[in-house]
Amino acid sequence: MTIERRTVVRAVLVFVVAALAVTLFSAMTAQGATVSDSAVSSDISMTTTTVDIDPPDDAASEPAPTSYSGSNRFLQSIVNGLVFGLLLALASVGLSLIYGTTGLSNFAHGEQVSFGAVLTYFFATQQPVSLPMIPVSFVIGMPLVPAALLAIAVAGALGWVQDRYLWSRLRKRRVGLVQQMIVSIGLSLAILNFIQWWVGGRRLRLTPDIDPRYQLGPVYLGEQTLISTGIAIACLLGVGFFLTQTRRGRATRAVSDNPSLAAASGIKVDSIVRLVWVMAASLAAVGGILLALYENGTAFDAGARLLLLMFAAVTLGGLGHPFGALVGSMVIGLVTEVSTVWLAPDLKYAVALGILILVLLVRPQGILGRAERVG
Amino acid sequence: MSSTDPFVKVTPEPGAPKPDPIVVAHGVKRQFGGLTAVDVAHFEVQRHAITALIGPNGAGKSTFFNLLTGFDSPQSGEWTFNGHSLAGVPSAKVARTGMVRTFQLTKALNRMTVIENMRLGATDQVGENFFAALVPGLWRQREADITAQAHELLERFKLYDKRNDFAGSLSGGQRKLLEMARALMSKPELIMLDEPMAGVNPVLTESLLDHIVELKAEGVTVLFVEHDMHMVRRISDWVVVMAQGKVIAEGPPTSVMANPAVQDAYLGAHHDTDLPEEL
Amino acid sequence: MDIFIDALGETFAPTTAAFALAAIGLNFHYGMTGLLNMGHAGFMLLGMYGFAISTQRGAPIWLALIVAMVVAVLFGLLLGWPTLKLRGDYLAIVTIAAAEMIRFLGRSQSLQGLTGASTGIRGNDYKYTFEALSPFPDERITVGWFTYHGTLSSSWWLRVVAWVMVLAFALLFWRLSKSPWGRVLKGIREDEDAVRSLGKNVYWYKMQALVLGGVIGALGGILWALGNAVQPDSMGRPTTFWIWTLLLLGGAATVFGPVLGSVLFWTSLVVVKRVAGVLVPDSWMTQSELEPFSLVLVGITLMCLVVFRPQGILGDRREQAINV
Fold it and tell me: Quick check: is C73 in a domain?
């Protein structure tokens, strides 16, 4: 676990340059301070007054229950960061598992997240919905919980179908990992636009209920947020239990460690990978649904916007490390939310990506990744 | 043994000093996590000789190669080539000083032709500079020289007819030959071959052995890793045996395998491997 | 007939040229060196910011171009520095992250005064230095079926300049790919350790390729901005993916692959949209749904290309048959 001095120096240098650049920028834009202040206040007014207006395509100005200013902004942002980190972990754990078992950086994972949320909307909303190319609209209007469960099942099935008819075939044809990655980019482009074609660019609310808010000590939490967090923790514990305590879970970790060795010792790698795909897709859907509840809505590109944060989390934690996604996600969640205390909220994703680049400088293998490979 | 044998006065023991060493390594240690892969106390390679590096699987031979050539860096240790320290020197620079290696898993550049592979091995091509590359007049002459040199080597390695084929279309053995020929393009002082004979068919092997002996006659020093004792005995002047990361024995090829430490190493490491048959 | 003329016009539109140029840059990265740059749109965006902002501040056109290129060089150096020593997919993740960072910064309210935040910079604020150089009359000119303005915005003047630049850089690619310099890069694409063992400074060569391709991408961005406007959200990830699609379509590592790919990509996008608009009744697919529909096809095309014809249209089948 030694870190070379050179890399530390390098990182510090980058950090100083970055800090200088930020200072320079804020100096150059003298009106910057007032502008960002007004941005914050408009953000607040948006959450308190209405959530029905279509907000601009802007990650930070989403009407998330986040922008409570006041003396406890810092504490509130830490709590928000932890919640967001947990949900992000849920969405990205599948990305990490797929990378670990197959080596694929799956750029279409974000679409799995949106797909789960949009499907839930499709099943649950009281608005008329339709399918692409079919000129009939209808109302399904299921209650939220069964709708969500059905959506998760369909998303999981999509994961199975993807591996059965696409990825396993590519592996069999010995298509290189880089090529597979580009295939996943194509798939992501196709699914993303398919979803947009299907539900349009509007913001979609899964439930019309008004979220009651509780005050816990100095911080505020919505009821949906509390429930989402509980579900997320339960799911993550489930994944942890699966990976450490069950035969198939241990086999999964063995495949992650060394696929050829695992195959040689009698593990059916293909069926493990199939299982991982189903798990990854369903977990992504769960993550998508919970995030949609947490952020009071979803959109066709919700997952696409999240994709980089997921990659950042997985890379930070250690590419392919089973628990790396969790650690990385918590870091990303905290960083994005806490940064809003000092920086304009529309910079929070930029901050997360900056942290990713910085960490790669010091520890390219991530926080939990092994420093070196034997052999 | 002839009287010109430089090894005549060398004691056959681990880390023995040589009369005219081209490579000297001291205290080179490489650990992966808790596992010590290489821990060489002292190691010297005699100039203008063919030295074989042998040992059971996992003895750390390839890792040691990587360390010497800058493809991996040890936790501690010092090593020199022609008296210049190479510790911390990047691999490309090591190669430019005249110490060129090949790889155990052949690294032919598959989607380039055989002749392009060869040309890449040459040094002093000014056209490899970005700005010079824009002015063909600056590098045409050198390119012609390089090509002539490449043709000569390809003839020698029986690859001339394949010169315009993609390297990826060659057989495994031919790729080994190509890699070795490519390494020779830079006219190295020391060539380090990592299992040069693995996967090469017997006919080619014979000519490959002749090439290696020829190299020595031309004044190139050879250090190679090999499993096949038959070949080690046929061409090498000196044998170094590694086991569990350490140099455990050295000596002339005729007698080194009789060393009890060597026999222990082979038997202890792999009960199921046959001892090299000519003990 | 209208569809045909529109499609034909698209073959030499400024956008087509801009993407062809950007794809030539990416061809230096991926086709020649094997670098997985997934943030090419970031280079384009930086190029147009550099050009537009310095012009706004009164810089003459040559200075604005230099500023844009210097910014791209710095960005390339900064990206390459930590990542070119790591495995390839790290470069992919870092480039895509960095490109998005540029976009997030550009559209941030805190930089309103510099970049115009999410509304961007209006064309009139920076196009005048380029338009002032136009030798064409200041009016609409009809040649054959096509009528465009002589000098303003998406003009004949821009078309001529854009395609001359595309040809010049295609020539540069040809020259370099046939040179010893290009040979080293191709060697790195195949196996960088092998090239290292032959005494070449792999890191430095990769850096050169990254920077060169990035600068070309920045120039492509400027061409795009001269035909449209500086708008950060038009340079998001989809743009990068389109460039990849059209590069692979035409054929990576070939001289005219990027050009052919860009022409085919934009032309077929217009054809698909127009044909679907005529054939598919509005009740099935409204006009606003045509855009995502055609992009679904782009995604599927990209997938099929990589799986079934990785060498693209112009690529050497023999070369790609070899499994790497």
Answer: yes
| Cβ atoms C145, C5 nearer than 8 A | yes
Do residues B29 and B82 make contact, with C-beta atoms less than 8 angstroms apart? no
- Domain ranges within chain A, ordered by starting residue: 1-36, 77-362
* Domains: count for chain C: 1
Give B252-266 pLDDT, tens digit per residue.
Answer: 888 888 888 887 777
Architecture of domain A77-362 in this structure: Orthogonal Bundle (1.10)
Buried b (16+ CB within 10 A) or exposed e, C45-78: bbbbbbbbbbbbeebebeebbebbbebbbebbeb
DSSP of A48-90: HH-S-S---S-GGGS--TT---STTHHHHHHHHHHHHHHHHHH
Q: What is the pLDDT of residue C25?
A: 95
Mean pLDDT across A203-207: 82
pLDDT at position A64 is 44
Alpha-carbon distance of C192 to C195, in angstroms, equals 5
Q: Please, what is the average pLDDT of chain B?
A: 85
Residue with tokens 């998760």: A152
ipTM: 0.86
- Contact flag C187-B96 (C-beta cutoff 8 Å): no
Residue B1 burial (C-beta neighbours within 10 Å; 0-12, 13-18, 19+): exposed
Question: CA nearest B180: which of B167, B193, B166?
Answer: B193
The verdict on C168 touching B (C-beta cutoff 8 Å) is no
Pairing of strands B221-225, B190-194: parallel
Partners of A176 on chain C (C-beta within 8 Å) are 323-324
**Considering the domain boundaries, does residue C118 fall inside one?**
no
Candidate from C184, C187, C318 with C-beta closest to B166: C318
* Domain encompassing residue C101: 2-112+126-131+146-321
Q: How confident is the model at residue C151 (pLDDT cuts 50, 70, 90)?
A: confident
Cβ pair C197:B125 closer than 8 A: no
Tally C-beta pairs within 8 A across B and C.
Answer: 111
Partner residue facing A189 (CB), from C97, C104, C238: C238
The CATH number covering residue C294 comes to 1.10.3470
Q: What does DSSP assign to residue C284?
A: T
Contacts of the segment C199-203: beta carbons below 8 A, 24+ positions apart: C199/B92, C199/B93, C199/B95, C199/B96, C199/B100, C199/B123, C199/B186, C200/B92, C200/B120, C200/B128, C201/B90, C201/B92, C201/B93, C202/B92, C203/C84, C203/C85
Quote the minimal CA–CA distance from A120 to chain B in Å. 47
Chains that touch B (3 or more CB pairs under 8 A): A, C
How far C89 CA sits from the closest chain B CA (Å)?
A: 20
* Out of C64-68, C108-112, C240-244, least confident range: C108-112
For residue C198, CA distances in Å to A148, B45, B95, B182, C257 come to 58, 21, 6, 8, 30
> Which residues of chain B neighbour C200 with C-beta distances below 8 Å?
92, 120, 128
Does some domain include residue C39? yes
